[in-house]
Specification:
- The protein is mainly α and about 300 residues long.
- It has 11 helices and no strands.
């Protein structure tokens, strides 16, 4: 009996077997991630080819530089707020003329330092009254001329550095010394107790409004700074309205000198001075506050 070979020869591999093996291996190596529960998987439309990025690369997103360029272009297209033309404020020119004329009329008699040329007779027992009155007029003249530039919107926006310098001049070489001296002059005024009370109240208010406004500018709270400086401006120019009321009351009361005042000129002058002293600064201050209250307040953002 012949020996039988127990070694089996492997069966030849066909093309079909190779294809089945490759397909099963590829399916096992590929992991399909199921979408989360409750979501719908959206397949690409028929006839389209889905492009898969190569391994190790990340999908390209929007260019950050393009977003910045887009924002820059939109900002460049935004309207730019420009200062209004100086001639668009018609009240500035008449105000400047009035302030200059008032200083030109009030200042010269006091430059000679001669008490005889003073428009105010010094009271008895106050030897410092005339020298301090001269200083008060000089400092108040600086404040009167400087405030015109400070309330001019076109000048503020066009020349901010000059606005700050003139503002310091207005505060420290104008209102501050003039207000301190003005309080003393109000205490020893020769125009009676009614005018005295007015001067003792008005001078501290003038100082407070001005110093608070300057402090708000230092704190960069410019909206509050402007409001307080509007009040300071109203008190600065109140000396002009004071003179206007003085003329009005004198014309009204002088015909009654011999009847109502029994020929006493001092009594009539006290009444005229008291009425003009109070109306001179209270009405401008009330008008300034009314103007501030009727303007819309800026929106504060955090």
């Amino acid at each position: 009996m012949a020996d039988t070979d127990t070694t089996r020869t492997p069966a030849p591999t066909t093309v079909a077997d190779t294809a089945r093996t490759t397909a099963s291996g590829t399916a096992a190596a590929t992991t399909q991630t199921a979408p989360p529960a409750g979501t719908t998987r959206t397949d690409p439309p028929a006839g389209t080819t889905r492009t898969v990025p190569p391994a190790g690369t990340t999908p390209a997103g929007p260019d950050p530089g393009s977003r910045r360029t887009s924002r820059t272009s939109r900002a460049s297209r935004a309207p730019v707020t420009r200062p209004r033309r100086w001639w668009r404020r018609p009240w500035m020119a008449p105000l400047g003329v009035v302030l200059v004329l008032f200083v030109a009329f009030s200042l010269p008699p006091y430059l000679s330092l001669d008490p005889a040329q003073s428009r105010v007779t010094p009271p008895e027992g106050a030897p410092l009254y005339h020298p301090l009155l001269v200083a008060h007029v000089l400092f108040a003249s600086v404040a009167t001329l400087a405030c015109w530039f400070q309330v001019w919107p076109w000048f503020r926006q066009r020349f901010p550095a000059a606005h700050r310098r003139i503002g310091r001049l207005y505060v420290f070489a104008g209102v501050l010394p003039a207000g301190v001296i003005g309080f003393y002059l109000g205490v020893v005024t020769p125009f009676g107790p009614v005018a005295q009370a007015s001067g003792m109240i008005m001078a501290p208010l003038w100082l407070i409004c001005t110093m608070v406004g300057w402090r708000r500018a230092r704190q960069r709270r410019f909206a509050d700074h402007r409001r307080w400086m509007v009040r300071s401006f109203a008190l600065t120019v109140s000396i002009i309205t004071n003179r206007i009321w003085g003329v009005v009351f004198f014309l009204l009361l002088y015909p009654q000198l011999e009847t109502t005042f029994y020929g006493d000129e001092k009594l009539m002058s006290w009444l005229v001075a008291g009425a003009t002293a109070w109306l001179g600064w209270t009405l401008p201050l009330l008008a300034a506050q009314w103007w501030l209250d009727r303007r819309p307040q800026p929106v504060r953002t955090a």
